[in-house]
């Protein structure tokens, strides 16, 4: 049974379908692993034992009757602590929301449950989702799978840890500037950032409504595709027959390859070599307007975040981690006209991006330009924290600014992810590309 803890969700689902795996035994195996894990309380903010057993029991009965609701009916997964969960504390990693217990599930959680997924519990995260590092001295900082002293990546830090440490078959997170892709990259998982508006945000604690997205952190591209479908109430895109031969990729040079750490640069170069050897055509790409778009980030993200949270924050600022508090408060320096002008400029740049990238199957760059930074230094050195947070999110933020969907894939080098950016609302095409790239990198 212990081998179940490292299998993909799709493999587990097929095992249930074949009668080789009992959903109740599978869920109990995961719950036992969670309860026995020495870092459990750093990964999970709540473990929903009773709910998980009840859902697994129902899945077992459906399997025995040949009435399964989906491929992953009976497979246990985790949910980031900003998805409302009926009767379970949902605090978005912040003492500002301490004791907040929703009465109903978030819409995507309801959709997933209706297709048989088993909810193991809620995972820790960066405070109010406003950091790409995953450091949270207020609640808990989940571990990085490769380095006990390093940050895990955020803000979906616990979601990544739950999968990387074999405590969930998949973790559902959110991505506003890279919060699915960074922890996926640093913990060698597949992370899918969906297009803004693709998945409902009803019942999800917000950060920036114009940029917030939902996505899975998984062990394979197939799993990412399945859970995209599950949250939409469908079976997900068909990835069969995807091949990298003849695919045309852009090697994004503007911004995305500035100041890469040597290990990252080497891993990225090796990944491109593997893709070329598998038959892909890779062409260097410069998009000069992207530099200007990156400069709009402070007003676009912080003004909206502070606007949404100002009253709650200023009622009890002492409850916050000072670095996160400072980042929120930076939004007060921008005016309404600043915000409107920035969005108008960004829409213009998005059109330039669309024209420059129209002929490619995907846009490639390193998921993160840096490796996971040291947690103690992040707490001791303000400048190091600020620089590390900005650098961690720099490449992923391109996808959010340009309104794209995106994937982070493991390269085979620890904590070095490969990012593939796709066109808006084209997750199906991106996932087929991702499945082909995954095969080439294996």
Verbal overview:
Helices cover about 45% and strands about 10% of the residues. With about 450 residues, it is an alpha/beta fold. An eleven-stranded mixed beta sheet has the order 1-3-2-4-6-5-10-11-9-7-8, with helices on both faces. Helix 5 (about 105-115) packs across helix 8 and helix 8 runs antiparallel to helix 16.
Mean pLDDT: 98
Tell me the major beta sheet.
Answer: 11 strands, mixed
Q: Could you tell me the number of beta strands? A: 11
Spell the H/E element sequence.
HHHEHEHEHEHEEHEHEHHHHEHHEEH
CATH architecture of the largest domain: Alpha-Beta Complex
What is the helix fraction of residues, given as a range?
Answer: 40-55%
Which secondary-structure class do the elements indicate? alpha/beta
Outline of the structure:
This protein has 16 helices and 11 strands. It is α/β, with parallel strands linked by helices. Helix 5 links the parallel strand 2 and strand 3.
For the structure shown, list the relevant keywords.
single chain, 442 residues, alpha/beta, Amidase signature (AS) enzymes, 2 domains, eleven-stranded mixed beta sheet, 16 helices, 12% strand, globular, EC 6.3.5.-, ligase activity, ligase, Amidase_dom
């Amino acid at each position: 049974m212990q081998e179940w803890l490292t299998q993909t969700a799709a493999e587990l689902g097929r095992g249930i379908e074949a009668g080789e795996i009992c959903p109740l035994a599978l869920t109990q195996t995961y719950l036992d692993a969670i309860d026995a894990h020495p870092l459990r309380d750093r990964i999970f903010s709540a473990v929903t034992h009773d709910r998980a057993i009840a859902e697994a029991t129902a899945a077992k009965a459906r399997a025995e009757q040949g009435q399964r609701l989906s491929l992953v009916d009976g497979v246990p997964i985790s949910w980031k602590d900003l998805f409302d969960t009926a009767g379970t504390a949902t605090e978005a990693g912040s003492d500002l929301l301490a004791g907040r217990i929703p009465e109903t599930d978030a819409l995507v959680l309801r959709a997933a449950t209706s297709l048989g997924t088993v909810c193991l519990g809620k995972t820790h995260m960066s405070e109010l989702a406003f950091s790409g590092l995953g450091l949270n001295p207020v609640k808990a900082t989940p571990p990085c799978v490769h380095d006990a002293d390093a940050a895990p990546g955020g803000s979906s830090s616990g979601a990544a840890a739950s999968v990387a440490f074999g405590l969930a078959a998949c973790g559902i997170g959110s991505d506003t500037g890279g919060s699915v892709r960074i922890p996926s990259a640093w913990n060698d998982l597949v992370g899918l950032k969906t297009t803004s508006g693709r998945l409902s945000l009803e019942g999800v604690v917000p950060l920036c409504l114009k940029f917030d997205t939902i996505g899975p952190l998984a062990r394979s591209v197939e799993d990412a595709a399945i859970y995209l479908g599950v949250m939409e109430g469908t079976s997900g895109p068909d990835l069969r027959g995807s091949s990298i031969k003849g695919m045309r990729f852009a090697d994004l040079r503007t911004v995305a390859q500035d100041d890469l750490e040597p290990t990252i640069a080497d891993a990225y170069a090796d990944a491109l070599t593997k893709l070329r050897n598998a038959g892909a055509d890779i062409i260097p790409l410069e998009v000069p307007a992207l530099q200007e778009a990156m400069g709009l980030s402070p007003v676009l993200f912080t003004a909206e975040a502070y606007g949404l949270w100002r009253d709650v924050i200023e009622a009890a600022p002492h409850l916050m981690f000072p670095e996160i508090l400072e980042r929120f408060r930076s939004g007060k320096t921008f005016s309404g006209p600043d915000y409107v002008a920035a969005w108008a400029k960004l829409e213009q740049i998005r059109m330039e991006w669309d024209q420059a990238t129209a002929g490619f199957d995907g846009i490639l760059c390193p998921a993160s330009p840096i490796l996971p930074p040291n947690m103690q230094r992040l707490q001791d050195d303000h400048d190091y924290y600020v620089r590390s947070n900005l650098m961690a999110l720099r490449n992923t933020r391109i996808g959010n600014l340009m309104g794209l969907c995106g994937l982070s894939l493991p390269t085979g080098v620890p904590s070095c992810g490969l990012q593939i950016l796709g066109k808006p609302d084209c997750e199906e095409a991106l996932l087929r590309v991702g499945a082909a790239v995954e095969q080439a990198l294996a």
